[in-house]
Amino acid sequence: MRTDHTDHTEIHVINGIFHQPSDSEVQRWMSSAFNMAIDALENGEVPVGCLLVYNDIVLGKGRNEVNETKNATRHAEMVALDQVLEWCSHRDLDPKEVCKHTVLYVTVEPCITCAAALRLLNVPLVVYGCKNERFGGCGSVLDISSGDLPHTGTSFKCIPGHRAEEAVDMLKTFYKQENPNVANPKVRKECMSPAGGTITTHTEAAPHEDDVKMAVSD
Amino acid sequence: MFKMEPETKKRKGMEYDPDSWHVLPVLSDEMSDDVKLLDAYAAPITDKRQTSRLVKDLSVVHPLADLHHIKRVRACKDKSSPHPLEVIVCLVSDVSVPTTFVTQPQRPASLTDLLSSKDFNFEGLGEPFPVRIPARAPLTRPQFEQASRHWPTSFHEDKRVTLGLKGQLFTSRQKAKIQEYMTTAVEAARSGREEGMDAVGAVIVDPKSGQIIAVGHDLTQDHPLHHAVMVCIDLVAWAQGGGVYTYEKHPACRYTASDPQLYAGHSETSGSEENVQPYICTGYELYVTREPCVMCAMALVHSRISSVFYGTASPDGALGTKYKIHCQKELNHHFDVYKGVMRQACEELTPLK
Q1: Which member of B144, B180, B300, B310 lies 3.0 to 4.6 Å from B155 by CB, making a disulfide possible if both were Cys?
Q2: Does residue B117 lie within any of the structural domains?
Q3: What range does the domain containing B70 cover?
C-alpha cells in the first residue's frame, strides 16, 4: 500500500526491514536494466545491465565495461555503484547510509566480486533476471549474499527470475559471436584450469567456446 | 627496520631476515583434509597360487566401484603371519549384514556372509576380518602416508605440492625475490597508512621479466571498494592502455607498462606466447600484505592472475580463511596461493578497522 509521500524512506523501511518493491516497480526498473544490457551487447560487452534505485530515484545505471577499460572488474554493478558514490559525495551523504535504502535491479545474478561489493556497501536487496551459473555470488557458485562474513558489510536478499529467459537469450547471443577483445587462446589455455563449469546460458557449444569462457567473467 | 627508503632499491628486502618466514601453499580442502575411510572386510590369502583367480572372482562379485586407487591385495603387515598376502573381500556397505551378526556383533562375519553367491570358490581364502580403507585417492604425500597406514593405494605425486608442503618449493634466490616484492607491498601499505588509509599494500609482478607492473595500497577513505588489490588491478589496466580511476593524489600507487621487449617477438625464446600482448593479469603474480577479501579474490579470478602471495590471514579472507576461491571447482580459472610471506612485518601493519 504505497502512497505518494515525499518521505519514501518511511514507506520502504518498516521496522528496519526493507519493503519489497511492487510488481510494477520491478517491471519498470528491470525494463530499464534490460535496455542497459542491450547497450552493452551493441558495444561488444557481455550483455548485463543494472540500475540502483534509491527512494524512486535512479542513482546509478551501469552495463559491463570490461573490454573498454581492460579492467575485468568493470561489471555493470561496479559501474553503477560508482555513480551512487559520486551522487553521495556531491551531497555530502554517507554512501552506506544511502545504499542501505537502495535496491539493485540487474539482468543477471551478480558475480562473487559484485555480491561482496554490494555487501560492503550495505545494499539490502537485489532483483535479478537469470542465474549466473559460472560466477554467481548469490547462490549459484557461492552464497556471498547471505554468507557468514561479519567483516564484509551486511547480507542482502534476492528476488530472482524476472525475465530470466530474455536475459539468458541475450547472453547466448553474445557468446555466439567471437569476442575480439580476448588474447590469443594458446596463452590462455595454459593458465586456465580444465574446462570450467557449464553455464545455463550456454546450452549449445558455441564455435569459440574458449573465447566465450574467457569473456563471461568480464 | 622498514624505513621508507625508495632510493636504496638494491638493499631492498635485505634488512629483513629471509629465514624468519616460511611460505606455505594454501591447498584445496580435498588436498588438505584428513583421509576419509570406509569400512571393509579383508581376508588372508592362504594359498598364494589362488591369488590372481581370487582377485578376478572377487572383482566380479564385489567390484569396488569408484575405488580404483585401492590396491586389492596387500602384503601382510605382520611379517610373522603364515600368509603373506591379504585381499579386500568387499565394503561393509556392499553386503547386507545377517541378523545373527547384528544381534551377536562379537561373532565375526564369515566368508559365506560376504560372498553369498553360491558358486564362489573359496579355495585359498582365509577368514575375513574388518579393515578401514581410504575412501579416495590421496592427493598429497601426507595424505598418501596417512592412507598407507590403513591400506595401500596408488598415488600420483605432484612434486611441487610435496616440496611446497615441506617449505622447499622456492630456492633461496626465489625467496629473496619474493621478499623484495613483499617489501615493496609493505612500503606501499605504510604510505597508505600515512594518508589515513588501512595499512594494506599490494604489488603485481610480471614474473617473465621480474618487472613490477603495479604498486597499490588501500584507498577506502576515497572509495569504499578501493582495497589495495582492486587498486592494483586497475593500475594494471592503466599499464595496458585502459584503467578507470586516477591516482594522482597517491604517489605510492603507480604502474609501469610491461617490458615491450618481452612482447615484441625478439626475445630469445620467441615462441608464439611471447608475441602476445599482456591481457589483464594473465601470467602475473600478486604480492599482498594480507589475505584478500571475497571481492578482491574473485576480482583476481576475473583478472586471470597466476599466483598470489600474502603475508597474513584476514578474518573474512577468501584465499584460505573463509573460502578458497582460487581452487573453487565451479570457476573457470584457478591459481596458486602462498601464505606466510614476511608474516611478522605484515602482521605488524595496523590491523584493519
Answers
A1: B144
A2: yes
A3: 37-97+107-135
